[in-house]
Amino acid sequence: MSFRETTKCFGQVTAVGNVSLDIEDGSFVALVGASGSGKSTLMKMINRLVEPDSGCVLIDGQDVRTVFAPELRRTMGYVFQGIGLFPHLTVAENIAIGPRLSGTRLPVERIADLLDGVELDKSYAARMPHELSGGQRQRIGVARALAADPKLLLMDEPFGALDPVTRDALGKRVRALHDRLALTTVMVTHDMAEALLLADRVLVMEAGTIVTDCTPRELLSGKGCTTAQELVAVPRDQAKALADLAS
Ligand SMILES: Nc1ncnc2c1ncn2[C@@H]1O[C@H](COP(=O)(O)OP(=O)(O)OP(=O)(O)O)[C@@H](O)[C@H]1O
User: Fold this and answer.
1) DSSP 8-state class, residue 136
2) 35 lines ligand 1 (CB under 6 A)
3) How many whole angstroms from 15 Cα to the centroid of ligand 1?
4) CA-to-CA distance for 168 and 96, rounded, in angstroms?
5) What pLDDT is attached to residue 154?
6) Is the CB of 13 under 6 A from ligand 1?
7) Cα of 32 from ligand 1 centre, angstroms
């Protein structure tokens, strides 16, 4: 996937300014940066929830604007905070909604497989969303995103509202699914520790541009701009403080 000189403005605000970027198939990319730096806008141009003012997004060399938006979105999973399950549909119906809209009925075994992928028992299929915890709802969101066998998984603060233990477990689970299904994953997160632990590549955004593009190892060895290093300092200082406490 590539961004080519991609720009999106909202009035006077340049949310994304002239970004060019290649994302390799199979990679797990984290987008981090301060609130308002343009992470969500950049991501939403991939699934056409936002259209660029200039430049383009290419998938397999094809401009996403040449693909009918609902058709395009069926080829990518999208997980966002507060996942938006349909309250009057069961878990199974929620998971199957994408394929159903395109005329495919998911077999019961496939639903069970998808639940298993997010470490939920198949008995959850019959539950209603209000009978689930927040973490379980996010798991269903991930299962739903994977229901149509996408190659690309887009996640916008997917674990933001979860407690730290659930967040850690679900993050690891998603990374395992990414590897097993050979997905290309783009994840927006505020949490540099999460980005360092889950991603192959971390992009730091500031005022609509990518100011650092490094691997976690490079970031931890001091590479990247000041903003990136300030973000890395947070988990590093916490880890050091904890190690000091324990010694
Ligand atoms: N639909 C919109 N209308 C007007 N301005 C918008 C819209 N969407 C985003 N913006 C503005 O564009 C800029 C980038 O927003 P964006 O949501 O991409 O940032 P972000 O890095 O994802 O922020 P956060 O981490 O808070 O979600 C911000 O200044 C925001 O106010």
Assistant:
1) H
2) yes
3) 6
4) 26
5) 96
6) yes
7) 13
The reply to whether ligand 1 has any atom less than 6 angstroms from the CB of 40 is yes
Residue 190 Cα to ligand 1 midpoint, Å, equals 14
- State which residues of the chain have pLDDT below 70: none
Contact 64, 41 (CB under 8 A): no
Distance (Å) from CA 179 to ligand 1 centroid: 30
Q: Give Dmax (Cα) for the chain.
A: 60
For the chain, list the strands marked E by DSSP: 2-10, 13-22, 28-33, 54-59, 62-63, 76-80, 152-156, 184-188, 201-206, 209-214
DSSP 3-state of 76: strand
pLDDT digits (tens, 9 = 90+) for 87-113: 999 999 999 998 898 888 999 999 999
Strands 152-156 and 184-188: parallel
The two structure tokens encoding residue 203: 């992009």
**Ligand 1 contact, 15 CB (< 6 A):** yes
Can you give the pLDDT at residue 166? 82
